[in-house]
Amino acid sequence: VLKSFQDQQQENAIKKTKLLQVDELAFHNSTQLQLLDLSGNVLETLHERTLEGLLRLESLNLRDNRLTSLPETIFDTSRIHVLERIDLSGNRFNEIPIHAIQRQLSLFSLKLARNRVVEVFTQDFINNVKELDLSKNPLSENAIRSILGEAKILRSLNLANTNIKTIPRLETPFLKHLNLSDNAIADIKPVMLERTTILENLDISKNRLTDLTNLTNTFKNLSVLQSLDISDNEIKNINKYNFDRLSTLRSLKMANLLNCTRIEKNAFRSLTKLQLLYIYNYPKLGYLDVQGILKNMTNLEILDIEIKDSSVSNEQLSMHIHPYLRELTLRGERLRNILSSSLVGVRGPRLFFSLKNTSVDTIPPALFFPVPRSTKVELNVSGSKFINLSSQLLAALDERGGYVKINGLDNNPINCSCEMKHLWKWLMLSDNKAPIVICGSPNHLAGTLLNNLTEENFLCNRTTLTKSQTTETSSLMKSTTLNPEIIWTVVPTVQSKNNNFNNDRIGKLLKYPSLSRMN
Question: What's a Pfam family this protein contains (predicted)?
């Protein structure tokens, strides 16, 4: 129980402390407090005088508690003069606490995500709020229609995962940010967003869109749109006209289009200002023209793309025309090889380079050679097929003086056999900067941290060495010996060591007559 709080700091967090109750006048002597975080507790009620004495509160965070209601006068201006933002997400509200909220005319942002709100009975409170988050509430169709049709001064609206099936005409001329993701929307007609002419961010991911035809016409009204997310839809193809009206776009996310079978070569021709592009996980798409997609995107900073080829090089990525690129992620099970020329042209101070869910099992030691030594590189190989890192690669990394950091090795089938000794030593010398490496094999070491093993684990026994050497010698002989003139087999006999030697010699002379002439 919090009974009294007298700290004069501007910010305080009393979160995740299993707080059951906050007494009235608990903040009576905290006139300088501007940011109050009570999230992650078990508060079920608040007293109407709990916030009394606070002059100006920029943010009140009450998310992830057990609140079902608020006292009507808790935010009265006689008790708290100004309250700008309140977060009630993750509580148990069945309705919006309108009577408490509408007393604060200065309230700018209201978050009520992850509650149990079904109906919205009045719009009075919305006239004061410019940022509204009702995501993950089971809203009724009437509630959705009321919010979208009457919230005229909203600047930001989040209705993700609220059971939306159809969109009415939005009467929100000042709206800049709209999130309609994770619903059941099958179509967006131009009339629906006709009045949202200053919309900057639109998220319609995780819906049921199958075609972009109507949406393409809708884009005509969105002349200043900067961010678009159409990921996780049922879109089947993308033609060269779909993005023509989006010349101002800075961010495009179009990942996980599982039904897409075609992306036309010039579909991205007008997106010359793009800074972020996510385009991956297209299981039905036979080929993705990486070079054609990227050729006009000279402002690109973040790229996450699927590679449909078995190898990738600088020819596809053309790093020299992307001087601002700082995050590069390559995906795709078909991708097996990263050529050493891939990063030629990198110039920035930092580069985050990721290989995710690929079939790549090795990295050429010269990969980072063309990268400026002053560039700090972070390499993520999560979900690839690495069983080892070569000693040459580790030496190349050391040469850069710690400017390359590796992550994601724990999600690879690392083989902790005796050949891993060089990697084990490298990890031991890396101190706290060492990546986490978990053994995938052999069976008796599966699940063990490589860092926790001792040098004894990497002593190859004589049998293994002999077998390895025999195999090597055999392979060498096969590759250098002339094709036999006579192919036959001598029936083996059990004799003394000398006889065995003579039999082997006779067999070879018969099999390769040229040897007898040499002797």
Answer: LRR_8
Residue 81 is given by DSSP the state S
- Segments forming the whole domain that contains residue 351: 307-457
Torsion of CA 22, 28, 34, 38, to 10 degrees: -10
Judged on CB neighbours under 10 Å (0-12, 13-18, 19+), 472 is exposed
Helix (H, G, I), strand (E, B) or coil at 497: helix
CB 102 within 8 A of CB 125: yes
Contact 4, 27 (CB under 8 A): no
Q: Which of 353, 419, 418, 365 is nearest to 394 (CA)?
A: 365
Output the domain CATH number for residue 354.
3.80.10.10
pLDDT score of 124: 55
Beta bridge partners of 57: 83
The span from the CA of 239 to the CA of 260, in Å, is 11
Per-residue model confidence (pLDDT) at position 489:
42
Instruction: Please give the tally of structural domains in the chain.
Output: 1
Structure-token pair, residue 138:
């089971």
Does residue 428 fall inside a structural domain? yes
220 in Cβ contact with 248 (< 8 Å): no
Please compute, for residue 193, the number of CA atoms within 13 A of its CA located in the half-sphere on the CB side.
Answer: 28
Q: Using CA atoms, how far apart are residues 129 and 85, in angstroms rounded to an integer? A: 9
Question: Can you tell me whether residue 406 is helix, strand or coil?
Answer: strand
Q: pLDDT tens digit string along 27-62?
A: 777 777 889 999 999 999 999 988 888 888 999 999
- Per the CB < 8 A criterion, the answer to whether 370 and 344 are in contact is yes
**How do 327-332 and 337-338 pair as beta strands?**
unpaired
Within-domain flag for 341 = yes
Within-domain flag for 282: no
Provide CB contacts within 8 A for 197, sequence distance 6+: 173, 221, 222, 223, 224
125 pLDDT band, cuts 50/70/90, is low
Q: Are 275 and 300 in contact (CB under 8 A)?
A: yes
Any domain includes 264: no
Nearest CA-CA partner of 307 in 204, 229, 384, 414: 384
Q: Look at residues 416, 410, 379 and name the one whose alpha carbon lies nearest to residue 394.
A: 379
CA pair distance 477, 237, nearest whole angstrom: 55
pLDDT tens figures, 128-161:
899 999 999 999 999 998 888 887 889 999 999 9
Burial of 470 (0-12, 13-18, 19+ CB in 10 A): exposed
Q: What b-and-e string marks burial along 323-340, b requiring 16 or more CB atoms within 10 Å of the CB?
A: eebbbbbbbbeebbbbbb
Question: Which whole number is the average pLDDT over 297-310?
Answer: 96
pTM of the model: 0.82
Report the 10 Å Cβ neighbour count for 69.
Answer: 16
Contact 22, 2 (CB under 8 A): yes
In eight-state DSSP terms, residue 231 is -
Gap between the Cα atoms of 300 and 326, Å rounded: 9
